Amino acid sequence: MNECVWVPDPATPPAPDPGGERKPDAIRITATEAGILQSFLATYPWQGTKSRQFRQIGNAVPPLLAAQILTPHRGIRARQSGFGLTA
C-alpha cells in the first residue's frame, strides 16, 4: 500500500545497464511523506493505524488543490506565493 516505484522520464535516455533491463526498486514512504506529496504540512496530525492514516491521505482533498478551486469563488485572486509548502 505504501510502496512507490519511481519510473524514469521517457524523454530522458536510460543509463546503460550491463545486466539487461532492470526494474527500479520499490521504496516505502511514510504517512508523513505521503501527506507532504499531497501538499499537507509535515506536522499534520494523521490519526490511527498506518493503514488508516494512508486511507485519510488518499481520501483527503489536497490543500493546494482546494485553495486553487475555492479562491475564485471567494472573490480573491490566487497568488502562487500564497501557496508555499513548508516541511
TrEMBL record:
Keywords: Methyltransferase, Restriction system, Transferase. It holds the Pfam family DNA_methylase. The keyword Repressor does not apply. The keyword Acyltransferase does not apply. It comes from the Bacteria. Residues 1-24 are annotated as: Disordered. This is DNA (cytosine-5-)-methyltransferase.
